[in-house]
Design a protein that fits this description.
This protein is of the alpha+beta class. The protein folds into two domains: 124 residues, no CATH class; 69 residues, no CATH class. The chain has six helices and six strands.
């Protein structure tokens, strides 16, 4: 679990660099077509989804492996009078590779000195284990929240009446929305004015055409992980 946590943590840092680049480009190309914005944010989405790095896309990213875990023996000095393979401490140590040498040279010595375990239990391993458990707990909580709210909404619109095709009218909703992944349905509030219905339906159908009912859950899934 700790290894998985570090993997996603590094991916989030890399995506953070890309997000900064996208935000900067949006300022420069603020009058450009919106399709360009979609492409730029798609690069961020790819970084968050793919478990490996795309060098051509990430060439401007300082480092794709910002934090790595190495055995503490790589940093600990050998015990005097002992074999060269015997070291004064055990466990693991985080290593910073930010892509900037002056940051690495300043941070890594501090980490190796301040986190040397003096007991039989390695505090770094405990710290990483706790972070991994917290991360997993929050992720599961968000997923359960999503399942609960989806089930509650399904139950809320269960008495809805079918208007035509995949369009339904409900007395229990206040705003129009799309529900479902495989066969998405458009739900409209029954109190909507007749003059608005045609335009609202066209708007929601445009969302379905662009597959927004699939992209939104994917975005929430990325949110739960990161």
């Amino acid at each position: 679990m700790t290894t998985l946590f570090i993997k996603f943590f590094n991916m989030s840092i890399t995506a953070g660099w890309l997000i900064l680049a996208v935000l900067s480009l949006r300022i420069i190309f603020r009058k450009a077509p919106k399709a360009i914005r979609v492409v730029l944010w798609s690069l961020v989405g790819l970084r968050l989804v793919l478990p490996f790095s795309l060098e051509s896309v990430l060439s401007l990213v300082p480092s794709t492996q910002t934090i790595s875990i190495r055995p503490a023996s790589d940093f600990a000095p050998a015990i005097p009078g002992s074999s060269p393979l015997t070291f004064s401490s055990e466990g693991v140590r985080p290593v910073i590779n930010s892509g900037f040498h002056f940051i690495n040279d300043a941070v890594n010595p501090v980490i190796s000195k301040s986190m040397t375990p003096e007991a039989s239990v390695d505090p770094i391993q405990v710290f990483l284990s706790v972070l991994s458990i917290v991360w997993l707990t929050v992720m599961i909580a968000l997923l359960l929240y999503a399942v609960f709210t989806y089930a509650r909404l399904r139950r809320k619109v269960s008495p809805a009446l079918r208007l035509k095709e995949n369009i339904w009218i409900s007395d229990h909703v206040d705003t129009p929305f799309i529900l479902g992944l495989i066969r998405p349905r458009i739900f409209l509030p029954s109190r909507m004015l007749d003059a608005e219905v045609e335009y609202v339906i066209a708007h929601e159908q445009a969302h379905i055409k662009r597959r927004d009912h699939l992209w939104k859950p994917l975005g929430f899934l990325l949110l739960t992980v990161y």
